[in-house]
Design goal:
The protein is α+β, with helices and mostly antiparallel strands. The protein is built from 10 helices and 6 strands.
């Protein structure tokens, strides 16, 4: 699962002005901006932005000036792939090192919507093994045991049990800074990804203001539904 909220997009006026610099064509700009930086992109500017975006990242340098701030909560297995995007991104995350013992662990702390439950097992499978969701529940039980021990003793060995048992399905919140160029790169390579989280992230990209300069009219398809 992935949750995306508190988005803010800024930098439109600077991006449009910078886009017009190479051809000294500021007089052709027809966009307007309010005091809060909200943009109404004019027809001429929109055509120029779209054409440059379709020409590729070398020509669409203005996209690097359109900044996006957003809160994203997603499992660690998503963040491991997200961390490949090092250029043009900044992220401040909730700390598992410092705050892992702050609250009791529950299933709600994990992305486990695809784990098989007992109800989904066939009769034959029930005799052979426990459903995968029970494995996660067992890990959570162990982690809560050592959490209680750690809160009492502050013994670092108890802390290690939580850190090294923590599954990659654990959901972590990060406040992320991106720009439209980074999002264009993500959208191109992740919109048809096997992970639901990436496809949902790319669907969110499609909802951003003037997202067509990111997607260039290309849409993702749910090939893994």
């Amino acid at each position: 699962m992935i949750t995306i909220n508190n988005e803010e997009v800024m930098g439109w006026e600077h991006a449009v002005r910078g886009m017009r610099n190479p051809m000294n064509s500021w007089d052709r700009s027809d966009s307007t901006f309010d005091e809060e930086g909200i943009a109404w992109i004019g027809e001429k500017d929109h055509e120029r932005m779209t054409n440059l975006a379709k020409a590729g990242s070398v020509h669409a340098k203005y996209r690097r000036m359109i900044m996006v701030y957003v809160d994203v909560t997603a499992p660690l297995y998503f963040w491991k792939e997200f961390d490949t995007y090092k250029v043009g991104t900044v992220a401040n995350s909730c700390s598992t090192m410092h705050k892992i013992a702050d609250k009791e662990f529950t299933l709600d702390d994990f992305s486990c919507e695809h784990l098989i439950t007992e109800e989904k097992l066939s009769d034959d499978e029930r005799y052979m093994y426990a459903p995968p969701i029970m494995a996660l529940e067992t890990v959570i039980s162990h982690m809560n045991h050592y959490r209680e021990q750690y809160l009492k003793t502050k013994n670092k060995n108890d802390w290690w049990q939580m850190i090294q048992l923590l599954p990659s399905s654990y959901n972590q919140k990060r406040t992320v800074m991106l720009n439209y160029e980074v999002l264009a790169n993500i959208y191109e390579y992740r919109r048809n990804h096997k992970l639901d989280e990436w496809r949902d992230f790319c669907k969110w990209i499609e909802t951003l203001p003037y997202s067509e300069i990111i997607t260039c009219g290309v849409k993702g398809i749910d090939i893994f539904e």
